[in-house]
Amino acid sequence: MNESAFNFGERGHLAGVWCEPSPKVLKRAAPPVLVWNVGIQHHVGPYRIWVDLARALAAKGFRSLRFDLGNMGDSDVGRGTPGDDVRDAMTGLEKKVGAREFTLVGFCSSVDQLHEVGLKDARVTGMAYVEGYAYKTRRYWQRWPLRFLSTVRWQNKLYYRLKNAKLFETKRAAMDAAELEGGAGLMLERQYPPPEQFTNDLATLTARGVRLLMMYAGLDSTYQHPDQLFDLVRGSDFGDRLELIYMGGADHIFYRSEDRAVAVANLCRWVEQPHLNVAAR
Fold it and tell me: Within 10 Å of residue 1's Cβ, how many Cβ atoms?
């Protein structure tokens, strides 16, 4: 495996880490995997989950780029939108390695760029929504009181309160500063697509042949039960293009190392699935 700095964008102002497997296992025909900022966190992701994912993918022969959007992390101020930065990443890799197709992985707020770019750019052939859009259905409200019976929920809340109070105060201050400066603060201003539009968007993507993964942690999340997505899109047929993974007991940012390991393994399996019978070349 080899990791190297990669600058791209119109002015070379965007920065990331390009991760390549050993030539012995490299799957050249496989689309590179792109990941970027989660909220105001830089390109390593919450608890370095993007680093873990990139290196796990490299072990299986897949290339990846983890990068910072404009005005965040190692990237300079950009002149476009966060979605433009994602498109610039794909264009940069077209020039670098000749890639024509890409797999995008979004997490929480970065799902916004994932969804926007995936809908409009035919180069996107795979999209993974990690803790993405979750809509409150009738069964969500029926099950909502059950969350207060979860011992794991209360244990986590107690741990955060006792052990991480100063950490969260620091993060809150950073978020407030970002909002005052603009740029990164825009990551905190989100608006879900209306439910009917989201359902139609999924139909559009799967009809185009895009593979979709929806992965939800389940703990302290708006997504409360395994079939919540299917309650929303009832009657829609996405064929075998949409996969849903509901972990159930993980928190929103996969704080526990064992939960992160499961999330990374799930993402790797999904990325690898269409390439299992294709020899490395």
Answer: 12
How far apart CA 255 and CA 145 sit, in angstroms, is 24
**What b/e readout covers 197-236, taking b as 16+ CB neighbours within 10 angstroms?**
ebbebbbebbeeebbbbbbbbbbebebbbeebbeebbeee
Structural domains of the chain sorted by starting position, each given as residue range(s) with its CATH number in brackets: 2-144+191-275 (3.40.50.1820)
Tell me the CA distances in angstroms from 186 to 40, 189, 210, 215, one per residue in order.
Answer: 9, 5, 28, 24
User: pLDDT, tens digit, for every residue of 101-151?
Assistant: 999 999 999 999 999 999 999 999 999 999 999 988 776 655 656 666 666
What pairs with residue 213 in β-bridges? 128, 243
What does pTM read for this prediction?
0.83
The residue type of 279 is: A
**3-class SS of residue 234:** coil
Q: Which of 280, 272, 279, 263 is nearest to 64 (CA)?
A: 272
C-alpha torsion sign, points 46, 121, 273, 27: negative
